[in-house]
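Input record (one chain):
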Amino acid sequence: MSQNAYFVTRLFEYIYVQKGKISVWKVSSMKKKKTLIIFCFFLSVLVGCGSIWWWFPTHILEEIETNKISIIKVVNKNSGNEFEITDSNDVSIIVEGIGEKTFRKKSVNSENIAYWYQLTFYGENGKEIETLDIQNKHIIKKYISDKFTIYYYCNEGLDVVTDCLERAEALQFPDYNKDPDF
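The corresponding structure, as predicted from the sequence alone:
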């Protein structure tokens, strides 16, 4: 037995190697290698595209026209106040204030962090369009589905939006005190 045949037999657990069997093994090994290379390629493309999507800045409510929203239902988690914003000027300030900001994705399905304001946007027909939680002046939580949420971070801040929400809440609840922590 030659040295190569001895090595092959030792490597494959002392399998008796014949000329036909070893060539079959090489063909199947090449198929396995090709399959593995193709799988790794597609996995790396998938990871690459996912990474680009994750790091690419985005806009929230950018595609929603302000005249298509009739009501914004607001819940203030800190005070417990619930109210609706129907004034077209306030709706425009809130939608455009969020829509013009650039956000970066921060995390997915984090622990249930308390929110400051929960905004639910309703269209002219009364259908719910979008629900967002404003965590603070920089973080928004967007509901993608019942079990999946994404937290977005905005460097610029949402001062115009939060000021409008606080003003609307103060008009409807005269005893409302601004929370200094936010």
